[in-house]
C-alpha cells in the first residue's frame, strides 16, 4: 500500500484519499460568528468598511455587494449581501431585492466564465431552523457546482429525503398562494 493511503500510524491503513480543508475548523468552532445580532458585531456589516482585497469583496453595488465566502463549500463560493443590516428577505426594499437578484445573476455568469461551473446552488438560509450560520444579516449564497462534487445521499444512496408527499406540499403552497 502506498504511503499516501496510510493514516500515519492512526488506525488501519485504508484506500481512501483525503482532501484536507483545515480552514473550515474556524467555521466549525464558530470563531467568525457573531455572538449577538447587532450590526457592530456583524461581519457582513464590517466587510464593506474594508478594502475590497482585505474584505474579499468582488463587487459593490448601490444597495448590495458580492463577497467570497470565507469558509466556502466549493471554490468560488460567493455571497450577495445587502449593505443594510437586515435578517430576513422579507425585510428588503424593492431596490435591495432587485439588486440582490441582479448581482446573483451576474455572479453566475462570471463564475461560469472563469471556472466553467456546470451548475449552481443558490440559497438564503433564513433563521436557525433554516440553517443560517449568521442569522442577523441576510446573505444569498451562490455556490458553483461540478458533476461529481455532490454529497453521498443522492450519489451513493440514490436517495433524496423529503418530509412530505409532493402532492401535499403542492396543495399547501397553492392554497397559501391564493
CATH level-3 fold name: HIT family, subunit A
* Main sheet: strands, sense, barrel: 5 strands, antiparallel
Query: What's the CATH class, please?
Result: Alpha Beta
Distance, first to last CA: 63 Å
Provide the number of structural domains.
Answer: 1
Q: Average the pLDDT over all residues and give the rounded result.
A: 76
Number of helices: 6
CATH superfamily: HIT-like
How many strands appear in the DSSP assignment?
A: 5
- Helix and strand content put the structural class at alpha+beta
Question: What does it look like?
Answer:
By secondary structure, the protein is an alpha+beta fold. The chain has 6 helices and 5 strands; from the N terminus they run αααβββαββαα. The chain has helices at about 25-30, 45, 50-55, 95-115, 150-155, 165-175; strands spanning about 55-60, 65-70, 80, 120-125, 140-145. Strands 1-2-3-5-4 form a 5-stranded antiparallel β-sheet. A hairpin with a 3-residue loop joins β1 and β2 (about 65-70).
Give me a quick take on this structure.
The protein is built from six helices and five strands, in the order αααβββαββαα.
